């Protein structure tokens, strides 16, 4: 089963970088900006699983997944705080739970860089990453 999920892991699509000036696109092909001329400046985002609290004999995993334009750390961290609230508030109340957060490319409103992954791609990546993480920690799948 691990081989199946590893093979299904989808990487975020490379961003589309528009020409510096839209009038260039109407000229000859030598005026069209290439990706080599304008390397993409894709925003970095923390993606994949991050373990906030690890319990070796956990009976459950609780995974926090941010929404559109969010990220796996900033979404769960109060303004002015250094640590995400699930990491500080949940372990004392849920000592037999692993607390995780998951990040994915959620940039859908940026002008030049937007994720082209579909919801099913993000869902598949989440399940793949959770399965892989549990296997790496020698937890049952």
From TrEMBL:
Keyword Zinc (UniProt): no
Organism superkingdom: Eukaryota
Region described as Disordered: spans on this chain: 1-42
Protein keywords: Endoplasmic reticulum, Membrane, Mitochondrion
Recorded GO CC terms: endoplasmic reticulum; membrane; mitochondrion
Comp. bias regions, Basic residues: 1-11
Subcellular location: Endoplasmic reticulum; Membrane; Mitochondrion
Main location per the UniProt record: endoplasmic reticulum
Stretches with biased composition (Low complexity): 19-34
Entry-linked InterPro entries: SERAC1
Keyword Transmembrane attributed: no
PANTHER family per UniProt: PROTEIN SERAC1
Protein name: Uncharacterized protein
Organism: Coleophoma cylindrospora
Lineage of source species: Eukaryota, Fungi, Dikarya, Ascomycota, Pezizomycotina
